[in-house]
Amino acid sequence: MKFDTPATTNPIDQLKVIGKPVDRIDGPMKTTGTARYAYEQHEAAPNAAYGYVVGATIAKGRIASMELDAARRSPGVIAIVTAENAGKLEKGDYNTAKLLAGPEVQHYHQAVAVVVAETFEQARAAAHLVKVNYTEQKGEYDLEKAKGKAQLPKKEDKPESKFGNFDSGFANAPVKLDADYTTPDQSHAMMEPHASIASWDNGKLTLWTSNQMINWGTKDMAKTLGIPVENVRLISPFIGGGFGGKLFLRSEALLAALGAREAKRPVKVNLQRALMFNNTTHRPATIQRIRIGATREGRITAISHESWSGDLPGGQPETAVQQTRLLYAGAHRLTRLKLAVLDLPEANAMRAPGEAPGMMALEIAIDEMAEKLKMDPVMFRIINDTTSDPEKPGRKFSQRRFVECMRQGAERFGWNKRQAQPGKVRDGRWLVGMGVASAFRNNMVMKSAARVKLDKNGIVTVETDMTDIGTGSYTIIAQTAAEMMGVPLSNVVVKLGDSTFPVSAGSGGQWGGNSSTAGVYAACVKLREAVAAKLGLDAATAEFADGSVRAGGRSMSLRQAADAGELVGEDTMEYGDLDKKFQQSTFGAHFVEVGVDVATCEVRVRRMLAVCAAGRILNPKSARSQVIGAMTMGVGAALMEDLVVDKRRGFFVNHDLAGYEVPVHADIPHQEVVFLDETDPISSPMKAKGVGELGICGVAAAVANAIYNATGVRVRDYPVTLDKLMSKMTLSA
Ligand code: MOS
Questions:
Q1: CATH code at 2-35+445-578
Q2: 265-281 pLDDT per residue, tens
Q3: From the alpha carbon of 247, which atom of ligand 1 is closest?
Q4: Residue 512 and residue 80: Cα distance in Å, rounded?
Q5: Number of C-alpha atoms within 13 angstroms, CB side, residue 92?
Q6: What is the mean pLDDT of residues 593-600?
Q7: Which of 47, 329, 337, 602 is the most exposed place for a label (fewest CB within 10 A)?
């Protein structure tokens, strides 16, 4: 099915199941421990041996030699795989660095070997006996230093945009801001580590793994190993978090496959937590310069956002200026990305790549500008709203209810009680402040396919290689099928995460919810046609409800249609150029209240509210969970998360969950989430968009702005830790 005209009324609009806050259908399996994650597929590979990954201890250079004898003689060892005996390996399309180093080492903790043994403990003990001799080379690990040599990235990364004449527009503006902001390297730090079990049978590989994008992973595994894609099967039914860290094939998957081939039996590899931070990808640090010029009345006339980030050679920039091209009005505009070569581990996508760090900077700048103008920051944002793409006049947003999010948020949060002057509100030892930030994230639509079957018991089974990374995919897909086929949710079975199923959009870029359900919608349209044909009813007028089909005054049960055999509908939802004709984005507003201890500068978040406009909300309960999770991650970005770079040796120092801090329950107050009641008929027949990434965009700046309002200390370098506050704090008890 091709989606190339705005959606009209369709069966999804019945809203009997869609739009309802139903519980997760996979919830009982998860809470009872019966949902099997990759590492727990014991029955699938009962005699699996254990692989333990050895990571490089230099950041750049070559492996001169490896001493493996002691490890080979160690008890229980079955095989050791290194680049020497791995056979020819290609680099996958989605990886910048190789997943198995040798002889070249591209980054710290890049895998250099996997040791396979009978037990995990034996593999680990033997791995510690592997000795690698390196020829170390000098690398560049300091973004600040590399910044001067940074280049415009390649065209696909949209390195630059210009509109009007920024230089003269800015020069002529009566009120100006020119400030630098920095965001640190961050790690996905999801609960479930990268884990895989590999099993070979006659040259065919089955991999139980934890991966967001089954099709990308399947193709890249085949490419890396140089085998036909038909000979690779990925299975990933449950994923314990990804945040972008599991978008692509990672070393543990390849090493499980290589280890299993060498050991001639299944091998399971769990990438140890202490390797995850340097072995896999991370969100790269940025340096961002923002310039804003405005009239005294507060209208933006000139806006510029430049961002510098680094990656390995051949890598990509953090697209932190994306939102600045679309969020606010202004006649003169300039955005630019610069990419420096760094020899740190591979930089890549993490929840809302681009906007998440971009909004961290932009939304402090907007707060600073409002203050210069002596305007309320909510009002400053509202008067600089735009109804069309500010760089492409006439190109409208499919929906843009940004102002309503701001107004509703301000009203609900009690923004009118905020004191504009910082440091004015005290609650005992706490300095109390409120902050606001816009939320913005683009909405992408991705081709997605599904197969839907109806059996003689009236059970509808959906199969698609879509994944559920904790987001609720199982549930919204079941809701979609139930709505389309007119059956209760309990009559729908959803099977996900298997590369033998039709290729879906996968879980990435907050497109998964809308795109994967649109694929299921398309398949259900086919199944409805098959059912109507079988029963001799007119498909165009047929109504599917309560397990029956009604048309032309006749009503027949759905079960009858499948009496003589299962009926199947399969289709792919594809998209025309609606996303070219209209700008599709999601909007929101974040409000935060913090308390800052006047003596210790400890920050406590006291209240949070998000108001989101993101098209139809398919399931308000799982969507709210997405947003509160994202808000929590935003607090982490504001106050804690920081991969500390050892600039001499080139690695992230705090590479475990003790040193890389993220919020825990005690850090997070009650969070409120409000969704505006809207549908977006431009985005898909589901009329939905994404919320999983919108929820993080802007949060950190709202926290930083609240801290400023509480203390009068403006920190432009994340995370806002107490040492940065203390050095500038002038208020005292
Ligand atoms: Mo997202 S960073 O595309 O999983």
A1: 3.30.365.10
A2: 999 999 999 999 999 99
A3: 4
A4: 38
A5: 24
A6: 97
A7: 47
